[in-house]
Hints:
Elements: E1 7-11, H1 15-27, E2 31-36, E3 49-52, H2 57-67, E4 70-75, H3 82-95, E5 99-102, E6 115-118, H4 121-130, E7 135-139, E8 155-160, E9 173-177, H5 184-193, E10 198-202, H6 210-218, E11 221-225, E12 235-236, H7 239-249
Parallel strand pairs: 1-2, 1-4, 2-3, 4-5, 5-12, 6-11, 7-8, 7-10, 8-9, 10-11
Amino acid sequence: MTLDRPRVLILGGTTEGYALADALAADGRWDPVSSLAGRTANPRPPAGAMRVGGFGGSDGLARWLRDEGIAAVIDATHPFASRMGWNAATACAAVSVPLLRLERPRWTPGPGDAWSLVADWDQAVAALRQMRAQRVLLAVGRQEVAPFAALPDVWMLIRSVQAPDPMPAFAHAEVLLARGPFSLDSEMGLLRTRAIDTIVCKNSGGATDAKLAAARALGVRVVMRDRPVRPDTATVASVDEATGWLERLG
């Protein structure tokens, strides 16, 4: 621990979390500690200190913040990691530690997009039935593919970094192990060669996404799951804004 610099807990694992840790470590005015969920084997170590795994709910996080002398928390978790967001809000309020949310902007549909917006995977399954989808790219993460096994007449291309384990009982499916980011050309090639008519994904947001651009160009439909509700927390969209927030804390 560096005693003469404020310790900042970064709830990370995202591109934004890594970039923030890099910026704080390079700046030298703060001592960043990144917490990773531990869902990915052998994660890339961020700049500064790192811890892996849960805290034991909001009470455990509050104790950890107090025991470790944390001056501020920046929640840079994935937009769909809503439980951690609520735990952070409760814990920070309990021990009077300032909390900021660093979150990439949502994707929004534009001219030429054919999106169906859904709130959960049950709605996504219903949307695929209604539109009579035949060949679907599932880009939802390996832990969330099971609901789509309820569509025996639909062929699924399951793309994820690691294979689903256990694998749900799909009637027709292919697993494609791949890690993004992907180029527009590669995404267009994938949609064409697999004859994909519909993509199912989450609104992770951020920079323009190649699969969505490819879907627009090829007339492929998109079933987009919206983000879960998060606590009403001060929120910024960039690392520079996050460091500015820390500077104003004094």
